[in-house]
Design brief:
- The chain is built from 3 helices and no strands.
- It has helices spanning about 5-10, 20-55, 70-105.
- The model has no long low-confidence stretch (mean pLDDT about 80).
- By secondary structure, the protein is an all-alpha fold.
């Protein structure tokens, strides 16, 4: 095959001795540590610090002391408001009493079944309006009997 002496002659290169790789390893370790430290510092600054600042706050200061006595204007305004409310309550109680009295009567039957005495009803006009063109009988609502 081939001559071993020739292979040794081809592969023999001048060697520089052992390579010193420790500066590369040390630099990679220091650089990695710096990157991890920068990441932790940035994470603390952006995320943890605002959360802790919000969660740990000083309590609110106590309210200022109340004045020594009640204000006469406010007392007068409150008394007037109470009087107005009592008057409104009295009106409502009167309305309730009137409605209760009406409920004591017979509410299931009509007093005037033919509807002849309707004081608040508007009377129907006797003649048809001029805009109507036909003389058809007015229809009644369903369920109602024509009178």
């Amino acid at each position: 095959m081939s001559d071993p002496a020739a292979d040794d002659a081809i592969e023999t290169k001048p060697s520089r001795g052992p390579r010193w790789r420790w500066p590369l390893i040390l630099g990679a370790l220091v650089g990695g540590a710096l990157l991890v430290g920068a990441g932790l510092g940035l994470g603390w600054y952006l995320f943890y610090r605002p959360i802790v600042n919000v969660a740990v706050q000083l309590p609110a200061p106590p309210p200022p002391p109340a004045p020594p006595g009640p204000d006469q204007k406010q007392v007068k305004a409150l008394e007037d408001q109470i009087d107005k409310q009592k008057a409104a309550n009295k009106q409502i109680e009167d309305q309730i009493a009137a409605l209760k009295e009406r409920l004591k009567t017979d509410v299931c039957t009509i007093k005037d079944p033919l509807g002849k005495t309707a004081p608040n009803a508007t009377p129907m006009p006797e003649s048809a309006p001029s805009g109507r063109k036909s003389e058809a009988a007015p229809s009644t609502a369903p369920g109602m009997r024509p009178s």
